[in-house]
Amino acid sequence: MKEILDYLSRLRENNNREWFQAHKEEYDRLRPLFVEKIQELIQQISQFDEDIVGLEAKSCMYRIYRDIRFSPDKTPYKSYMSAYIAKGGRKSLRAGYYFHFEPGNCLLSGGVWCPEPKLLKALRQAVYDNYDELKDIVENKEFKSLYRDWVGETLKIVPRPFPRDCEQAAWLKRKDYLVVNVKPDDFFDSPDWVEKAAHDFHIMKPLNDFLNYTVDEIYDL
Fold first, then answer.
1. What is the pLDDT of residues 84-93, one digit of tens each?
2. DSSP secondary-structure letter at 154?
3. What is residue 111's three-state secondary structure?
4. With b meaning 16 or more CB within 10 Å and e meaning fewer, what string describes 152-187?
5. DSSP-based helix, strand, coil % in the chain, nearest 5
6. Could you give the CA distance from residue 171 to residue 200 in angstroms, rounded to a whole number?
7. CA separation for the pair 99, 194 (Å, rounded)
8. What pairs with residue 101 in β-bridges?
9. Partners of 109 in the β-ladder
């Protein structure tokens, strides 16, 4: 993993087609190693999440090529490798397990990011109606120790039709239901980092289950 991080660091400093093509053989050698580790992670997660059983790493991984058509940033490549482990792979609508491998910004994440309006409305209703269940999940000692940070956009006021002064107010303002656990680069020096990452994802699973109850209901999955 150190070798992959070193490559990504150099790519970030030389983010152009000429450098990438000159080091294409290195990329072609390292990417399969990353695929192998993601497959190991999938196998570990499948031990506690049956929806992940049989999932192939390649269906979960994102391309390193950036879509620059509508972006002011015209650098052609991502400076990270990543995968979204969920039933259906990287295009899944379900809450899943996101693995992001980037020098100085490695993270484990999960939940629902950028839900479309009908799903967001339904998720807010689920939070409002089942707040005690959500609290039990997010206030669990081990969960809080790993996932202190919730990321994404929030509204300034509680949206209608919910009362503005309700106990759930902060959660109802959320536009994403996404948790993040940032890992230092040396976390991946450990020979058992895959098992450790899977453990952390296991702690996240109750949140994904809570969210997926609504996701599956909305999309009849």
1. 999 999 999 9
2. B
3. strand
4. eeeeeebeeebeeeeebeebbbbbbbbbbbebebee
5. 50, 15, 35
6. 23
7. 11
8. 81
9. 98, 180
Half-sphere exposure of 22 (CA within 13 A, CB side): 8
Q: Locate 58 and state its tokens.
A: 């390649």
Cα 43 to the center of its chain, rounded Å: 17
Provide the CB-side half-sphere exposure for 62 (13 A, CA): 20
Ramachandran angles phi, psi of 99, nearest 5°? -115, 120
Local structure of 77: helix, strand or coil: strand
CA distance 64 to 50: 29
Residue type, 22: A
Amino acid sitting at position 32: P
- From the CB of residue 145, how many other CB atoms can be counted at a distance below 10 Å? 11
> CA-CA distances (angstroms) from residue 194 to 47, 138, 174?
13, 24, 31
Crossing angle for the helix pair 2-13 and 24-45, nearest 10 degrees? 130
Cα(118)–Cα(66) distance, rounded to whole angstroms?
Answer: 28
Distance CA 149, CA 109 (A): 10
pLDDT digits (tens, 9 = 90+) for 7-58: 999 999 999 999 999 999 999 999 999 999 999 999 999 999 999 999 999 9
